[in-house]
Amino acid sequence: MKHSLFLTIFCIGLFSCNSGSKPEISKTDSSETKEAIVYPFTPKYSLKWQPGDEKYALMVLNCLKHFEEGDMKGTFADFADTVEFIKDGYHFKGSRDSLAVITAESRAEMATVSKEFDTWLTAFYSG
After folding, report:
1. CA dihedral defined by 114, 115, 117, 118, rounded to 10 degrees?
2. Is the predicted pLDDT of residue 14 greater than 50, yes or no?
3. How many helices (H) and strands (E) does the chain have?
């Protein structure tokens, strides 16, 4: 009986607490204008989710767009001098120029990057 009474009081106390978080009011300067960002790909998902600065997403998408078009110089324009590249079964750590050479050779072997990339991109965002 004591356990039932304790459990009942605990549940009532738990549900009666009003610990809901209040919406945070953002204090921003209204005079600051946000620059419009034009993405190189059209997403099939909502752009309302913003994990951070959109300029970084733009940088990555431009890199992928340059790769798709075969522009290796543009692909690695925003990379640092030393890079670490990891993908399934492959790990590279070295200079940007070395990675550009390796990637250019890999890109040259692909007949149609657009079709393969669209398939990968669709699979990545759908699951």
Report:
1. 110
2. no
3. 5, 2
